[in-house]
């Protein structure tokens, strides 16, 4: 596992951009595993800027998102489908048919089975991750099995509170209680993993991820066993290392 410490969020996002572009330019039909949340927002802006300025093509790029809230329709402003279009896809030349976000509605068994099969058929060249303050990756909350595949999960209260603050104007009751998430095994199947964590509220999870024991109580710690995992943190998130 390679740990890169950058001064701040901007520098961390720029370092992540280099890694993403390296994949996209060298493999025009690469499969990208993508994340939502506040962390990748700047990276996605930089990808859009690069596309406009340098015409990096996404025509044959495929995308597979990590997760989706259960119960929100695609056009709900807080759905991850909506988020991805708003923050990234709308300004790229990516083909709509190559975009995949797990469905947040319908029969749970069908949805999870189909998404798992899709992931099996389309290995990701890179998986982008944020980090929950409780150490989750995707919506794999503490206690999730390392061998999990796509599944339905109840969000921990701490995750609901974090997301209420960031995206739901502090209204805890508006945050969906459940989600569909790619499993940890499927995250580990990506050829390369790129995790970005910034800010002091991530410092404890970053310490566990980098220096702690590998335990299902801190899902991100499994990345210590990935053959090509890059962790980009800013100085605040690295403050306990
Ligand atoms: C998002 C996701 C989550 C977030 C994590 C950090 O698709 O899977 O694991 O990456 O909750 O969220 P932020 O970036 O908002 O701190």
Your description of this structure?
The protein is of the alpha/beta class and 241 residues long. It has one domain: Rossmann fold (3-Layer(aba) Sandwich). The protein is 33% helix and 17% strand. α1 (9-26) crosses α2 (41-54). The protein is globular, with a radius of gyration of 16 Å. The two termini are 15 Å apart. Fructose -6-phosphate binds next to loops.
Q: Topology of this structure?
A:
Elements: E1 2-6, H1 9-26, E2 31-34, H2 41-54, E3 62-65, E4 67-69, H3 80-87, E5 99-100, H4 108-121, E6 126-129, E7 151-154, H5 157-167, E8 178-181, H6 184-188, E9 193-197, H7 203-211, E10 229-234
Parallel strand pairs: 1-10, 2-3, 2-6, 3-5, 6-9, 9-10
Antiparallel strand pairs: 4-8, 7-8
Helix pairs in contact: 1-2
The protein binds fructose -6-phosphate.
Poorly predicted segments: none
Please give the CATH architecture.
Answer: 3-Layer(aba) Sandwich
Percent of residues in beta strands? 15-25%
Helical coverage, percent range = 25-40%
Query: With helices defined by DSSP (H or I, 4 residues minimum), what is the helix count?
Result: 7
CATH topology: Rossmann fold
SSE pattern, N- to C-terminal: EHEHEEHEHEEHEHEHE
Major sheet = 7 strands, parallel
Count up the domains: 1
């Amino acid at each position: 596992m390679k740990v890169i410490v950058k001064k701040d969020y901007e520098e961390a996002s720029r370092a992540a951009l280099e890694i993403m572009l390296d994949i996209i330019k060298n493999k025009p039909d690469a499969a990208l595993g993508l994340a939502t949340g506040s962390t990748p927002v700047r990276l996605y802006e930089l990808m859009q800027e690069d596309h406009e300025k340098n015409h990096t093509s996404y025509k044959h790029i495929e995308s597979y998102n990590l997760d989706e809230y259960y119960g929100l329709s695609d056009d709900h402003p807080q759905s991850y489908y909506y988020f991805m279009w708003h923050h990234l896809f709308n300004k790229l030349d990516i083909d709509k048919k190559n975009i995949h976000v797990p469905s947040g509605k319908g029969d749970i068994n069908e949805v999870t089975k189909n998404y798992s099969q899709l992931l099996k058929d389309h290995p990701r060249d890179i998986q982008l991750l944020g980090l929950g303050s409780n150490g989750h990756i995707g919506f794999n909350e503490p206690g999730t099995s390392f061998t999990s595949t796509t599944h339905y999960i109840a969000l921990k209260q701490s995750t609901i509170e974090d997301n209420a603050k960031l995206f739901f104007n502090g209204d805890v009751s508006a945050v969906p209680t459940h989600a569909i998430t790619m499993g940890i095994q499927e995250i580990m199947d990506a050829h390369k993993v790129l995790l970005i964590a910034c800010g002091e509220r991530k410092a404890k999870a970053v310490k566990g991820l980098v220096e702690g024991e590998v335990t299902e109580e801190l899902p991100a710690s499994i990345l210590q066993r990935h053959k090509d995992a890059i962790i980009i943190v800013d100085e605040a998130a690295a403050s306990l290392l």
